Amino acid sequence: MQPIKLILDNKLKDVAALVKEYGYLDGPKCGNLGCESELSHLIDDWLNNATDLRTEQETLGFNDEDFERLIGAIYVADVIEYEGSNTDAK
């Protein structure tokens, strides 16, 4: 399977950094080694204001639907490139 590549505006770099805290690279963020969905944790945390994601959303002026799509895309991306900057690979 080809790596999933995402190209983002530089202004979204902080959102990407927050989203990349989720995943299984160093074990699940929740600390439960039997965790079945880090993506679910990401969405729940965003919806329940448990992270800075809601603040980032408000700062950027995204509606809920567009922001959910954005964080989902960042979550599944293997490589993120920022316009006018370097590549940020998982």
Description:
The protein is of the alpha+beta class. It is 42% helix and 12% strand. The protein contains four helices and three strands. The chain has a three-stranded mixed β-sheet with strand order 1-2-3, with no helix packed on it. A hairpin with a 4-residue loop joins strand 2 and strand 3 (87-89). The chain is globular, with a radius of gyration of 13 Å. The two termini are 16 Å apart. The model has no long low-confidence stretch (mean pLDDT 83).
Spell out the blueprint of helices and strands.
Blueprint (H helix, E strand, L loop, with lengths): L4 E4 L4 H7 L18 H10 L5 H8 L3 H13 L2 E4 L4 E3 L1
Parallel strand pairs: 1-2
Antiparallel strand pairs: 2-3
Can you tell me the overall shape? globular
Order of helices and strands: EHHHHEE
Unreliable stretches (pLDDT < 50, length at least 5) are none
| Helix/strand class | alpha+beta
The percent of residues in helical segments reads 40-55%
Q: How many beta-strand elements?
A: 3
**Average of the residue pLDDT scores:** 83
Q: How many helices in DSSP terms?
A: 4
The biggest sheet, with number of strands, parallel, antiparallel or mixed sense and barrel status, is: 3 strands, mixed
Task: Calculate the terminal CA-CA distance, rounded to whole Å.
Answer: 16 Å
β-strand percent reads 5-15%
Radius of gyration: 13 Å
Main traits of this protein?
90 residues; alpha+beta; three-stranded mixed beta sheet; 4 helices; 3 strands; 42% helix; 12% strand; globular
